Amino acid sequence: MGTGPLFYVVQFATVALLALAANTSFGGLPVLAELLARDNNLPHFFALRADRQVHRYGIAFLAVTSALLLIVAGGEMNLLVPLFAIGVFVGFTLSQAGMVRHWVGERPAGWRWRAGLNGFGALLTFVAAIVVTGSKFGEGGWLIVVALPLMVAGMEWVHRSYARIGARLELGRTPSPPRPRRSLVVVPVHAVTRLTRDALSAALSLGDRVVAVNVTHPEDERQARAFVEDWDRWDPGVELVQLFDAHRRMRFRVS
């Protein structure tokens, strides 16, 4: 093209093309990540939206990954373009193969020629992906060959993890009706004070049975007797268990 007007037209067209490609990625990948997260193939936080109804985690992940690619490649276009081309052809192949599956499954009017058209397109883009990968394998194309299986394996691992969690939570099954359970609340007490009263009041609102436990050193028998006398005089209507332990440990068995 030389340095005339056509040179600048080509440069401007290239910039516009790359800008549209980047915009498509930031507009499409977060939505795709949301769909994959809903199907338990990605962590569920990719399906969360911010206050402005954007998928912040998908956008952040794409921004960080893009920045890392630029840094690793040193901004070298000859290394990044093969990755873009291979990714585009692989995406076209998968999307058109998915459309073939859609037409075969739904079978609306004229589904045969539509399935044939999408199948032919999938074949062409698949051949193009193979050719570009083979010709650019040593120039960065190997990264896609390695990354795609790892991505699929990672999504399969996430899916199995959510499947195990769902089995534990019995998702998709109607649980049995809830049944009340008796609960025991143990309240350590040391003296008859307002703090003891407030603690017992809170415990009575939480459990069916409340037990106050007083732990005393074996040599402090006078203090233990004084506490029992104060407790009986107060008579809060709560069972009292008194323990004697040199280390003031709370160990007892409730029948």
What's a quick, concise take on this entry?
The protein is 64% helix and 7% strand. By secondary structure, the protein is mostly helical.
The helix fraction, in percent, is 55-70%
Mean pLDDT: 86
The largest sheet has its strands arranged as 1-2-3
Anisotropy-based shape? elongated
What is the strand tally? 3
Q: Kindly give the count of domains.
A: 2
Straight-line distance between termini: 94 Å
Q: Determine the strand fraction and express it as a percent band.
A: 5-15%
Number of helices: 7
Order of helices and strands: HHHHHEHEHE
Which stretches are low in confidence, meaning pLDDT under 50 for 5 or more residues running?
A: none
Cα-atom radius of gyration: 34 Å
**Helix-and-strand structural type:** mainly alpha
Query: Largest sheet at a glance?
Result: 3 strands, parallel
Main location: membrane
Membrane topology: Multi-pass membrane protein
Transmembrane segments: 6-33, 54-73, 79-103, 115-134, 140-158
Keywords: Membrane, Transmembrane, Transmembrane helix
